[in-house]
Design goal:
This protein is α/β, with parallel strands linked by helices. Helix content is 43%, strand content 14%. It has 9 helices and 7 strands, in the order H-E-H-H-E-H-H-E-H-E-H-H-E-E-H-E. It has a 7-stranded parallel sheet with strand order 3-4-2-1-5-6-7, with helices on both faces. It starts with 10 loop residues before the first helix and ends with a strand.
Length: 269
């Protein structure tokens, strides 16, 4: 029986989708969007041109994920390290780009029934940016399809620090820290991602073989797929290729160290 191709996929996306098992799609995909700077350098353009070009990749990837029925997609958009180490001019550009993206994409998110969320130390972002983010979240709050989460001013180590601090604060309000009980379930309840399942698949673009302080707790058993494709060139077809590779794997959880690790360098985009 031939699988039904979701509406909106182009010809190449449809060809890849027909190789997938729709019953075994990842519940949650996380993407480390890397390569904007290299894309720009290869074209003798400023770094900000790479960031601007990457917006089209976000749109294509988000729409394709929603069309095929991925429940959750999380994009590593802006790390805490970016905030501290990048030149102020580049940070200011990224903040403006985020605001323009939100304003332009809310109609598309609503059309695709996508709900927008954020993780990270959002309170440290400029107030004008926080206001635009709150507006976009509220504008998509009634959507019941895919949850798109943008990681902004995000660091996995900071998330764990915040989770442990939240645990202590909760105990102090409820009988004192001597009653504090810390286990995995308690930590999960205090993570930024408590509203999401752990990712089944993490995709990294640009060929780099590291997690870059992204969702370190949540990615404990995720399948890792690395593609040499730079983020501004990444499209829905590349997402589907990553899912196709994911479905070839035998998912394993726990066991001896290294027993469940499946590391794959993706096909060229």
């Amino acid at each position: 029986m031939r699988a039904t191709i979701p509406a909106g996929l182009d010809r190449k996306e449809s060809e890849i989708y027909l190789r997938l098992d729709p019953e075994r799609l990842p519940r949650h995909i996380a993407i480390i969007m890397d390569g904007n700077g290299r894309w720009a350098r290869r074209r003798h353009l400023p770094r900000v041109a790479g960031h601007r070009a990457g917006v089209s990749s976000v749109r294509s990837t988000v729409e394709t994920a929603a069309r095929i029925g991925i429940p959750s997609l999380t994009l590593y958009a802006f790390s805490e390290e970016n905030w501290k180490k990048r030149p102020k001019s580049e940070v200011d550009f990224l903040m403006g780009l985020l605001c323009r993206y939100l304003k332009a994409e809310v109609p598309t998110l609503n059309k695709n029934n996508i709900r927008l969320e954020y993780i990270g130390r959002l309170h440290e972002l400029p107030s004008s940016v926080q206001e635009k983010m709150a507006w976009a979240r509220e504008a998509t709050a009634q959507n019941s399809g895919m949850v798109l989460t943008l990681a902004l001013n995000y660091s996995a180590r900071t998330e764990l620090v915040d989770a442990f601090q939240s645990l202590v604060d909760a105990a102090a309000r409820n009988g004192g820290v001597e009653h504090l009980k810390i286990d995995e379930e308690a930590v999960c309840r205090h993570l930024y991602t408590r509203h999401l399942p752990d990712p089944d698949l993490v995709i990294r673009t640009s060929g780099e073989m590291r997690l870059s302080n992204f969702l370190l707790w949540q990615l404990a058993y995720a399948e890792i797929y690395v593609t040499p494709t730079l983020w501004p060139e990444f499209r829905g077809t590349h997402l589907l290729e990553g899912i196709a590779e994911y479905q070839k794997r035998e998912r394993r959880y726990g066991g001896l160290a290294g027993d469940g690790l499946n590391y794959h360098h993706g096909a060229k985009g």
